[in-house]
């Protein structure tokens, strides 16, 4: 059986990404506990919360002087849905990260595709190494949405046609584009997350500006909001010290 574009599984189009904190063991006290073993040896967590100002000062000192290892004794697991091109960039972050992504070999990939939203700046201006993005015209926005959707539909029809003919999923998936949504679990600690955020977000307090692709930045912003809630002192110290991972 073959499918026309209309008969195929109905494609979905998304302009957003999603991030869910599914599991965590992460608090500012984890940093203090790890740091104070240097000077005080083993002590209870209760002791650590007795003097908030001192705790804040210690975290800031560790961040400023780049004593990084106390920021590793915690864990956050995120479930992330984003286009494949975001995951290609994401998985370049090797240190302090664990990944498990959905398989295109063991299950049929669902037709959910990325189309930039209206607020996504579409046009790059300037020379390599010194450029900026500006909003597209109405015509460019309309064209981008229309052409992307048509191309996505066509590729998914081809994918499904091969599956229907008995071709293996791992072979048929070759026709699917990098705008297809995928999902993964990503586990990190505060130190590896800070390194990621320093490179993959833009922020007014960044001492060293980075120029990430907007879509991975959208993922980073959602992860950062979750992390800031869990470790507010560490997050504040990260910002105050130029968003450079210790
Ligand atoms: C704006 C931007 C543009 C980019 N453009 C491109 C591009 O055009 N092409 C491209 O291929 N990549 C590109 N990248 C990816 C980039 O080169 C890094 O692979 C990615 O940012 C991960 O950074 P990382 O290696 O520091 O992180 P991790 O892999 O998590 O490593 C963390 C740190 O550990 C140390 N480390 C890890 N592995 C080694 C090693 N083998 N040897 C020595 N030290 C190590 C380093 O200090 C490193 O900073 C880009 C990244 C950004 C942010």
Automatic annotation (TrEMBL):
SUPFAM superfamilies tied to this protein: Thymidylate synthase-complementing protein Thy1
Highest taxon above the source species: Bacteria
- Gene3D superfamilies in alphabetical order: 3.30.1360.170
Q: Where does dUMP bind?
A: 89-92, 101-105, 173, 200
Cofactor(s), names only, from the UniProt record: FAD
What chemistry does it catalyse, as a reaction equation? Answer: dUMP + (6R)-5,10-methylene-5,6,7,8-tetrahydrofolate + NADPH + H(+) = dTMP + (6S)-5,6,7,8-tetrahydrofolate + NADP(+)
Q: Which GO terms describe its molecular function?
A: thymidylate synthase (FAD) activity
Q: Which residues make up the binding site for FAD?
A: 69, 92-94, 101, 189-191, 195
Record text on cofactor binding: Binds 4 FAD per tetramer. Each FAD binding site is formed by three monomers.
Keywords associated with the record: FAD, Flavoprotein, Methyltransferase, NADP, Nucleotide biosynthesis, Transferase
Top-rank EC class of the record's enzyme? transferase
Explain the purpose of this protein.
Answer: Catalyzes the reductive methylation of 2'-deoxyuridine-5'-monophosphate (dUMP) to 2'-deoxythymidine-5'-monophosphate (dTMP) while utilizing 5,10-methylenetetrahydrofolate (mTHF) as the methyl donor, and NADPH and FADH(2) as the reductant.
Subunit record text? Homotetramer.
Q: What is this protein called?
A: Flavin-dependent thymidylate synthase
């Amino acid at each position: 059986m073959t499918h026309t574009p209309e008969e195929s599984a109905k494609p979905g189009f998304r302009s957003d990404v999603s991030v869910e904190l599914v599991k965590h063991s992460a608090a500012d006290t984890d940093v203090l506990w790890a740091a104070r073993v240097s000077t005080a040896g083993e002590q209870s967590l209760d002791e650590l919360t007795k003097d908030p100002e001192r705790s804040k000062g210690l975290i800031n000192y560790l961040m400023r002087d780049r004593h990084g290892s106390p920021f590793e004794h915690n864990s956050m697991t995120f479930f992330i849905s984003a286009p494949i091109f975001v995951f290609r960039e994401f998985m370049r972050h090797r240190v302090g990260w664990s990944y498990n992504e959905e398989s295109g070999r063991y299950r049929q990939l669902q037709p959910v595709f990325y189309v930039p939203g209206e607020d996504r700046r579409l046009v790059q201006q300037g020379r390599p190494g010194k450029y900026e993005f500006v909003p597209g015209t109405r015509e460019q926005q309309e064209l981008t949405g229309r052409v992307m959707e048509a191309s996505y539909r066509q590729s998914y029809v081809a994918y499904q046609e091969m599956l229907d003919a008995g071709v293996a999923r791992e072979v048929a998936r070759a026709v699917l584009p990098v705008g297809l949504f995928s999902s993964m679990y990503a586990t990190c600690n505060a130190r590896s997350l800070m390194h990621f955020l320093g490179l993959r977000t833009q922020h007014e307090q960044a001492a060293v500006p980075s120029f990430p692709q907007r879509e991975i930045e959208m993922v980073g912003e959602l992860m950062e909001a979750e992390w800031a809630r869990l470790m507010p002192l560490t997050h504040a110290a990260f910002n105050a010290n130029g968003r450079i991972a210790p």
